[in-house]
Design goal:
Keywords: Hydrolase, Protease
Structural class: alpha/beta
Number of domains: 2
Largest sheet: 4 strands, mixed
Number of strands: 4
GO biological process, one term: proteolysis
GO molecular function: peptidase activity
InterPro entries: DUF2268
Protein name: Zn-dependent protease
Order of helices and strands: EHHHHHHEHEEHHHHHHHHH
Strand content: 5-15%
Length: 308
């Protein structure tokens, strides 16, 4: 297995010192180009044909520092993600998260992986609602972490990377296409967050789970999501997964769901599945959602107890 680290701090330092005219293409070629295959899979143009058109820079800048924001004024921010210890910890998290599947006799079809950590955009509500950190790992072979670097987010990056590595493994075995439904996404997010806590402990459980209490989960979220498991079309199912506030940010129709409802439900759903079946998190990660949902029918009627 070949796992490559893209040291974004080195790129940020270069871009910060570059002239305003050089910043954009320097950032595009050094930060975005190594992920070219991901952009092709996501059908995001690498460079817009018209000025200010939609491309990888516009897409990336929604949640991350844009090239024009990377200047000497944010040197202190860049410094926070520039230590060798930070990158070694992140690299260890990715390597351990992927290698454990191989050690548990799950042969991964993808052998080459690239990961990086990017500075988040402080103006992004989608990031701040997540307490300043996030990630993306749904395209096999590519793993991203995002953070507003501070004492809270930096120690949590390893858990976020484990979460994204779990997605990365799952979607080497489970087909993602236009037929993906809400049930799959509840299962997927539940598996990923259970894997993160399996790796690094429940004290690093993400806010997308911890902000939901038992009463809201049992009386509001579970009864609604139970009836929507077959819902398809990302614009239709996303509000149930992310909640109304993030749905509105994405210009989607709210559905009276609290923050990250699907993540919280998925986390407890997978805990129920693992307890009931005795399956390992490794086996569960590559199990089709329909099979998991068939095993956890009792979850919907049983009151979920959330320990403090």
């Amino acid at each position: 297995m070949n796992i490559k680290t893209l040291r974004s701090d080195h790129i940020y330092q270069k871009v910060a010192q570059a002239s305003p005219e050089e910043k954009l293409e320097l950032f595009r070629n050094e930060m975005m180009a190594p992920f070219m295959k991901q952009w092709q899979i996501q059908q995001i143009p690498f460079k817009a044909e018209e000025e200010n058109g939609f491309d990888v820079i516009a897409f990336n800048s929604m949640m991350h520092r844009s090239p024009d924001q990377i200047s000497p004024q944010i040197c202190a921010e860049i410094e926070l993600i520039s230590s060798e210890s930070f990158w070694l910890e992140c690299e260890h998290a990715v390597k351990k998260s992927l290698n454990l599947f191989v050690e548990h006799e799950i042969n991964l079809p993808v052998s080459d992986y690239l990961f990086t950590i990017q500075l988040g955009n402080p103006e992004s509500r989608a990031l701040t609602i997540n307490e300043g950190y996030s990630g993306f790992g749904g395209i096999p072979g590519f793993i991203w972490g995002t953070l507003l670097p501070n004492e809270y987010t930096i120690p949590r990056m390893k858990a976020a990377l484990a979460h994204e590595c779990n997605h990365n493994v799952r979607y080497q075995f489970i087909q993602w296409d236009h037929t993906v439904n809400l049930g799959e996404l509840l299962v997927s997010e539940g598996l990923a967050e259970n894997y993160a806590t399996f790796m690094f402990g429940e004290e690093l459980l993400g806010p997308w789970v911890t902000k939901t209490n038992a009463e809201i989960l049992n009386t509001h979220i579970k009864p609604v999501l139970r009836e929507q498991l077959q819902l398809t079309g990302f614009d239709q199912l996303a509000p149930y997964l992310y909640g109304d506030e993030i749905a509105k940010l994405q210009n989607l129709e709210p559905v009276n769901m609290p923050y990250s409802a699907g993540y919280a439900c998925g986390y407890h759903l997978i805990q129920y599945y693992l307890r009931k079946t005795g399956s390992t998190i490794f086996e569960a990660t590559i199990t089709p959602a329909a099979q998991i949902l068939d095993e956890i029918k009792g979850f919907w009627d049983e009151e979920t107890i959330i320990s403090c």
